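Lab notebook: predicted structure, single chain.

Context: the supervisor wants predicted structures on file for every construct in the current expression panel, including those that have not yet been purified. This is the next one on the list. No modifications to the sequence; it matches the entry in the shared construct table.
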Amino acid sequence: FVTVDAQGQIFLDRLAVNLDELRNQVIQLRTDDPDLNVTIRGDAKSPYKRVRDALDTLQQCNVAKVKLATEVFNGGPRP
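Prediction complete. Output recorded below exactly as produced.
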């Protein structure tokens, strides 16, 4: 998982990373698994630009399978 929190910090699994670190670690993960799937998580307060930065970084690493996940709000999906 890649997570973007409300302050715009990016995490790979639970480790805080900057975009260069994300790129390097995803490249390593793709070496081990060329068919890597990544899910980007955020919430309504995550800055869109940071989510877009994470998506762009994954695209630069040739990760073709990227899913977007959102947090549940009041027991149901966010509108």
